[in-house]
Amino acid sequence: MTTDKEKTESFRESKQPNNEKSPLLPNQQGPDEEFNGASFTGAVFNLSTTIIGAGIMALPATMKVLGLGVGIAMIVFVAVLTEASVEILLRFSRVANATSYGGVMGVAFGKVGRALFQLCILVNNLGTLIVYMIILGDVLSGTASSGVHHTGVLEGWFGENWWNGRHFVLLVITIFVFAPLVSLKRIDSLRYTSALAVALALVFLVITAGITVVKLFNGSIAMPRFLPKVTDIASVWNLFTVVPVLVTAFICHFNVHTIDNELGNSYMIQPVVRTSLALCSSVYILTSFFGFVLFGDSTLDDVLANFDTDLGIPYSSLLSDVVRISYALHLMLVFPIIFHPLRINLDDLLFPSSRPLDSDNRRFALTTIGLICIIFLGANFIPSIWDVFQFSGATATVCIGFIFPAAMVLRDGHGIATTKDKILSVFMIGLAVFSNLIAIYSDATALLEKNVSPHA
């Protein structure tokens, strides 16, 4: 009789790739390095860190658009859809014997499908990492993207100097923080930084909640609206602009296979996904609630920028700085988790026939340096995180999170899709296409009006 251990080992062996160049695979271990599989806790931290990134900073602004009631309901709704799409992705990967998202896309749609997925990863992850750098610049050096200058932490402490300007600060962070972290070749090596990143996100949440509760009790703020403001058809279309932000907030599909491949027990991935989504949804709901209650209709696209003002409570300045610095550190630690699949997929797209990236140090270094430079330049020339979220979230991110998994179900090359799967897939594709087309239209209209209004 086969033991449970033998079953697990057999299943893990069946997951090994036929093609070592499949993107998002764990790196091959050298003869002197023993790796017995990632733990459940480490996997939860890594996946949670993939999810909780810059999206949390834009979610309070979505509450300003939707109102608390509708906004919180939408967070739960997108979390449920995300869990369903990840389950579909993993189920079809098992049947196709694919150990990567790119691999299962290749099985379902051939080389074109695989390349399309990789291009979406480039757009999504580059956009996300550029957002991280923009927020770091906003927090440490200040921002004027809203038309009003908001002071950064370093500017508040030391005044305006060349060495705490946006470009120089981001350059220092890139060289001394990002470069060492993105040099790690296996994602499980980041489990401790991921745990610290989640803890720092909780610090941000706890302090924000504490400030909000104090101000509610002393009557200096009131409970904001629970429903959106709908006055005309334009305000209805404007509601859809939050969809790319919500989708981006939950995107984690590109790291699921990597974490699954590194798990000591392959059957743990679904509990890992559910635990991570439950944890992140709770953090998102609480952050959105307290952030919007605290700042109301003055909530900025990046809520961290709101913390440069006097919060009207004792030790306001100290608490504001702790909030902003804790989340800046969180984003620094999340950066390599998002960078990891970006680098592997770019390499596989450009050099599909070359040996694995982790075994070619020269190619690894050049790819890493090139991507870091692109991200750095993007962060210095794109003014607002909302602009990036709208573009990447309405295109590449929604494809990765919902359209590609749903398309696999409708194609169903292995004959495993149920009627429920097909109905859900049609719903996901229809909802994603409809809502994001409206979001793009609404944002494009608003951008054009903003650009022409000064000349009117």
From TrEMBL:
InterPro entries per UniProt: AA_transpt_TM
Start-end of Polar residues biased regions:
16-30
Q: Where is the Amino acid transporter transmembrane domain?
A: 38-442
MF terms in GO: L-amino acid transmembrane transporter activity
Q: Which UniProt keywords apply?
A: Amino-acid transport, Membrane, Transmembrane, Transmembrane helix, Transport
From what superkingdom does this record's organism come?
Answer: Eukaryota
Q: How does it sit in the membrane?
A: Multi-pass membrane protein
Residue ranges for the region (Disordered) are: 1-30
Q: Which residues cross the membrane?
A: 38-58, 65-82, 116-135, 167-184, 196-217, 237-256, 277-296, 325-344, 364-382, 388-410, 422-441
Nuclease listed as a keyword: no
A single GO cellular-component term on record? organelle membrane
Q: Where in the cell is it found?
A: Membrane
Task: Identify this protein by name.
Answer: Amino acid transporter transmembrane domain-containing protein
